[in-house]
Amino acid sequence: MINEKDWKQEQERLDQVIEKLQARIAELEPEVDGLRNQAGDIRKRFWEEVTVNTSTDEDFEETFYSIKQQEALLSERERSYRLRMQQWKSMNRLLQSPYFGRIDFLEDGLGFSEQVYIGVSSFVDSDGMNFLIYDWRTPIASMYYDYSPGAAVYDTPGGRVSGTMELKRQYQIREGELQNVFDTSLTIGDELLQQVLGRGGDSQMKSIVATIQKEQNAIIRDDNSRMLIVQGAAGSGKTSAALQRVAYLLYKHRERLKADQIVLFSPNPMFNSYVSTVLPELGEENMQQTTFQEYLEYGLGTALRPEDPFDQIEYVLTEQSTREYEARLNGIEYKASVAFLQALRNYAEWLGQEGMRFNSIRFRDRDLITVQQMEAQFYGYDRSIRLANRVAMLQEWLLKEVARLERKEREEVWVQEEMNYLDKEQYAAAYKELHKERGVFDFAEQYEEVQELLQGKSRRDEGDFDYAEREEELLRRMIVREHFKPLKRSVKKMLFLDMVGLYAQLFGNKDDYVAMTKETEVPEHWPDICEQTKGKLGQLELFYEDATPFLYLKELIEGVRTNTEVRHIFIDEGQDYSMFQYEFLKKLFPRARMTVLGDFGQAIFTQATELYGADSPLIRLYGESDTRLIRLVRSYRSTREIVEFTKSLLPGGKEIVPFERSGKKPLLSKAGSDEQLVARIAEDLAALQAAGYASIAVITKTAAESSEAYDLLIAQGCPPLRLVTKQTPTFEKGTLVIPAYLAKGVEFDAVLIYDASSRMYHRESERKLFYTACTRAMHRLLLYATGEWTRFIEVLDTSLYEVRQ
Ligand SMILES: Nc1ncnc2c1ncn2[C@@H]1O[C@H](COP(=O)(O)OP(=O)(O)OP(=O)(O)O)[C@@H](O)[C@H]1O
């Protein structure tokens, strides 16, 4: 804490700033109102102000310009309104807590030091010169995060500025009142951070703007790398840093970067709601948020249904180790690999020479255009032309063919039959069209008459409008056109390509696969893998592991539909994506930079990708020179006792450093029977709730276990509980029962591991799942078992936990 004199000065300055903010808000208010009304008025009276007259070309031109002018006026007013509104909002945000930090910086060569107060946005005195508050994203504010008092530098577009930081101070201000002031010397934030981290959890993530740590600041402000990879321990602030980074980028490039040009890939839809308040809290608009699954579904359309990653993981966790199980696991691994990606590329090349598969174009139970015709046409094109281009040429040819056959079809008997059954409305439509045509015909008639008069010729009496004949022709045309519409649509959608057949063709016998893909090796249990894949395809479904490869192949054949608007993609829980998926994303967003945040210690999916280390394939995605790796080892979420316990669960966990915040050691409770176990958990839940923990999670291994636990706990008369499934749309505060893989990325005041016995967690592949579950706890971690403890606990040093007697 600071001395009384300093406190008084700080309070005075705070009062002054608040007064100035209030004055500015009062000044802005009428402007905001005025502009809002003006824009509203213009919008309402838009058509009164423009003179619409289209009788002559000149009138038309005048009308056109009058509309343009009115539009320009409206958009100008709306722009100023938006700008003022933004200012007004950010002033109001500042009013509650104008700043959280201050540094006094003496620039080399200058005789005086500047007091730099730092807040969530800038505020300049009415003279326009004096910064009362600096936005945390300004270059000078970066020193607050990067340095302790002493020598310090910061980079500006004009070059590097060096000097001495004479003071570094932190503030807690609530509703305009100074609550705490700390002077920091060594590392920033320790005291403030202690306070922040000691608080209870929330159903929504919070901004960390006041306590960003140096290594997190490096992630936030990185502006050069095409690819930024962050490997960070559980709770090290990866997601938090990612969101601050979005806010930073939006500020730094505010002239050209809009929030919807940034996409965040979240681990599940619930996560979207969890992080959705951070950016608005910082005064920025939210970026686009999606899940990879959503992307897959969009890409595949309605024809094929992809399994989701949660069903896949349920299978992996619950099935017994049979031959089919091993085969599926091998399949998952192989289909996630770069080798398979290359195999598909080679396959596409092979298809350029032979083996394409088409669907014939059928109409009324007959082939209008046969597969053989398409093959002949397709392989008749110059073979040096790229596959996708040849497919486009074929599509064009098909559209022409369909149009030709449509004309031919008009003479068919069925058309005549259908004509007899036309209803009134269809007749009316035909009649209308006929009259339109008649109008044109009349005009042509008149023209011809005049021409002939002028030329002194007598007219032949031909060309009279034969109504009946025209009508029939028109009706035939109409009927056939209606029937051909779906055909044309299907050609436009490339449904003449037998995509399912093309993908299934890969999964035949080994020799064919090798010949088609130039692969030398196939994974073990290949025949089973083939059978499983084709079995699923037969039901018009795709395994999760097949969905991305299938789409990739589709793009290789049909041409890639890229998104060039998006400039940044963020991938949270990046270890859960396969290399295959990364390659796909790179292709999909050719103009975007990529930020990948993840933790290999939490890699619970079979297709996981190692992010860090020399052999990380992710580094090769954009090449080493375009890639920057950052590692976070300090964990902020959990107390020291919880981190000491969880880090020992991982072979490479030694490097994880807990943040100095103390609490109780994890508590192990063993019960004699399932009933006893449930009774004990129910008791503990009630005690935790009574102790004021607002967010509590009972974490299970699978969804099936969750629903069982939920039923038993409810039957035990537990206080209000909520069961979370993959369909749950948002996170809410309270007590939840949730499978570990859905709790990824989020945190709770207290975590209860429902069953940590050896029958639940024993396979090596389950170690990381167990670790992920335990690392969700901020303040309390309680573990239960009926039989033996899982071997992951058995081997731990007994000083790391307490055992309930
Ligand atoms: N610099 C910081 N200041 C304050 N709180 C922080 C800071 N860094 C992280 N935290 C807090 O630590 C917790 C964990 O952060 P976050 O969820 O971003 O970590 P993560 O690395 O994404 O975790 P996981 O991989 O386990 O999902 C959050 O409560 C976050 O607010």
From TrEMBL:
Pfam families: UvrD-helicase, UvrD_C_2. Residues 211-639 form the UvrD-like helicase ATP-binding domain. Keywords: ATP-binding, Coiled coil, Helicase, Hydrolase, Nucleotide-binding. ATP binds at G232, A233, A234, G235, S236, G237, K238, T239. Residues 4-38 form a coiled coil. InterPro entries: DNA_helicase_UvrD/REP, HelD_bacillota, P-loop_NTPase, UvrD-like_ATP-bd, UvrD-like_helicase_C. The keyword Coiled coil applies. It comes from the Bacteria. This is RNA polymerase recycling motor HelD.
